Amino acid sequence: MMNRIISIVVTLLLSFAAAAFGGDITIGVSLSLTGKYTEMGNMQQKGFLLWEKHVNENGGILGRKIKMVIMDDQSSADQAKTIYTKLIEKDKIDFVIGPYSSSISEAILPITEKHRYPVLLSGASADRLWEKGYQYAFGVYTPASKYTVGFLQMLVNYQIKDIAIVSADDAFSVTLSSATQTWVKRFRLNEVYFQIFKKGQKDLVDIAFKAKTSGAQAVIVCGHLDESIDMRLALKKIGWYPKAYYASVGPATQQFFTVLKEDANLAFSSSQWEKEAGVKYPRGEKFIEAFNQEYEQSPSYHAATAYAAGMILETALEKSGSLDRDGLRDVLAKLDTMTVIGRYGVDSKGKQKRHFPLIIQWQNKKKNVVWPETLKSLDPVF
Q1: Residue 380 lies in a domain
Q2: In 10 A of CB 88, how many CB atoms?
Q3: Do strands 358-363 and 268-271 pair parallel, antiparallel, or not at all (unpaired)?
């Protein structure tokens, strides 16, 4: 207890001294600005920088300006570990936010935990991240185990029962595929085909053909952008399109349509956020307008969740009233707040429990929200 009190006093004294000399609050993050997750990483960077701009225009946090320190992890877990070690041990960064992808986040969590740095995971959702007893990791995304719930509910409503599930072998995808199998049973649907393939495998024609011959009415692809595109191309190559094609992550990005063009049509996915729903959340409309003006493009959910992570950190620090990281950890564990993507709140393990994903479908060269009923812009097409 005495050590904790001393730590808080020292932190407060350093904060007051830094404020007197105009020191910035530094916030470090590694993002996939190059490599296989570039599309998502670049959107995240734009979201963080826009949040930084808005916070500083409004006077900063606790009377101090903030400075985002963004580094490229090249979509590599090893590179991310090097970056977070440097940020914490050498640069003495004030706070950190997590990288993109569950696999890379999993790699850096032992580092942040060791140094007792609370970390908002604004780009990761694999449930297993919160099954290891970490005390300083807090989720922003809906966990992967709930990604496909809305889609499966729609299949029930439209009496589509026979499901093929294929998955890459990375942490996020395996978590999602396993959870989807569980939800398929709960919804009393039929799993007629299941296959896990190696991450990076491009030729998925054989898997597509086996899904077809299984009698599947719907195909669910658990993966990221590449897998969603590669499986769609494989379906085209064998001349078959199921009644419903769902892929995680990929179809929620503009790059999915840029690559596939007309072949993107009718694909479903889960999205942590979309513009048409986002305008209904606090500061949502202003965020969208500001992003469009700043970057001359629309934000993806990756940009919105990055901005939301900044909002959560901002609210928690203001509520804590200091830069003490243990104090911030305690606030994040109990915080219930609204952001541009909706509600934030975590369970006792730090897993997000209050935010839910939307289901989108490409129709007429545009992403449209088709679930839930209260937020949809169009009916789904099967």
Answers
A1: no
A2: 19
A3: antiparallel
